[in-house]
Structures are given as structure tokens and as C-alpha cells.
Design goal:
Blueprint (H helix, E strand, L loop, with lengths): L2 H10 L3 E5 L2 H10 L6 E4 L3 H5 L2 H7 L3 E3 L7 H10 L5 E4 L3 E3 L4 E5 L3 H7 L4 E7 L3 E2 L5 H16 L11 E5 L8 E6 L6
């Protein structure tokens, strides 16, 4: 696997893409993309939790749009909608092909909606474990690895409950809006 080539392929598709050797380096790079005082939200992402990025955001000088602070399902839904207006949305991807195509499965659609439209900037931390050789391998990795592990984490009886919305992102028309930080360590599912 040639990380430099993957970064180059992501850039050709309009993504801002960088490599960080460690999770700690990835967090620092991500924070450099997020101005203090700006609004930040996130979808369900083990990668941003495992890396420590979410903890840094929560402890930092940011306006947090946090669905986990909701007091009811209705309020949670409204907060998820408000996340679409954030300055920055934090996420990851279930799979990235060596030619620079991104793939996600989402249970509600809020994460894929924020990636494709809404927030001014999207910052994604992607562990090296999520890289697949070809575009044809994206969905298989997401369905066979990420979906079952996420279903278990969320205590869902069936992994199909997490597979409501599929998203393949082949190009970023608003160049640089989606920032991909490839991490040289395993991160998330």
C-alpha cells in the first residue's frame, strides 16, 4: 500500500488529504483545521472517540452541537438537524479505496447528510485499517467489518439496522471542504 499515492488520489478528487503517523498527530492536525470559537458537531464515530479528538473538542473553546446532550428523542433529532449548520463536522469513513473513493454506511442518514451537504468543513480521521485496494471492495469492507462491529457497539439485534443509508463519495466539488487525515495506525471499525 502506497500512502503517498492514496493521498495524491484523494487530492485529485478534490479532497484535502494529509497523512498522520499516529493518532496523536492526527488529532493535532484535525485541531489545526478547526478555529477556536467555531461550532463543531459529529456523527457516531469510534475513530474520533478512540483518537482522543472528541475529548479535545469537548474540553476546548468550541460551540458544541452534541446530540448526546438531548433530553428526549425529539430534541436529539433536532440537534442532529442543527449539526448540518455547524462550521465543522467530525467523522470517519467505513472504507477508503486506494484510488481515493470514500464509503460510509449510516443508520439515520445524519452523518452522510453532513458529509455531502451542510457544514462548512468536514474533518475525517481514517485509520490505515480502513484502506481497501479497489472501489469494488468498499461496500464489502463496510458490510462485513464495520456494520457488525457498530451493531454490536450500539446493542442492535441485527446489523441490518445500521445499514439504512449507503454513501459513496467519489469527488469533492467544493475543493478542500472534506479533509481526510489518513492515520498510520488502526483506528475505529
Amino acid at each position: 500500500m502506497d500512502i503517498e499515492k492514496i493521498i495524491e488520489n484523494l487530492k485529485k478528487r478534490g479532497f484535502e488529504a494529509v497523512f498522520a503517523a499516529t493518532k496523536a498527530d492526527a488529532v493535532e492536525k484535525a485541531l489545526s483545521f478547526i478555529p477556536e470559537g467555531s461550532s463543531v458537531s459529529w456523527g457516531g464515530s469510534v475513530s474520533i472517540e478512540e483518537s482522543g479528538l472528541l475529548a479535545r473538542i469537548k474540553a476546548g473553546n468550541y460551540i458544541k452541537i452534541d446530540r448526546d446532550e438531548a433530553k428526549s428523542p425529539e430534541e436529539r433529532f433536532e440537534i442532529m438537524r442543527k449539526a448540518l449548520t455547524a462550521d465543522t463536522f467530525l467523522t470517519s469513513f467505513n472504507a477508503v479505496s486506494e484510488d481515493g473513493v470514500l464509503f460510509n454506511i449510516d443508520g439515520n442518514g445524519n452523518r452522510v447528510a453532513a458529509i455531502t451537504f451542510g457544514p462548512k468543513s468536514v474533518v475525517a480521521l481514517v485509520g490505515i485499517n480502513k484502506i481497501v485496494p479497489a472501489e469494488s471492495d468498499l461496500e464489502t469492507r463496510a458490510l462485513k467489518i464495520a456494520a457488525p462491529l457498530n451493531a454490536k457497539r450500539l446493542k442492535l439485534s441485527d446489523e441490518k439496522d445500521i445499514c439504512a443509508v449507503f454513501e459513496k463519495v467519489r469527488i469533492c466539488k467544493n475543493k478542500g471542504r472534506i479533509k481526510i487525515i489518513l492515520v498510520g495506525e488502526n483506528l475505529g471499525y
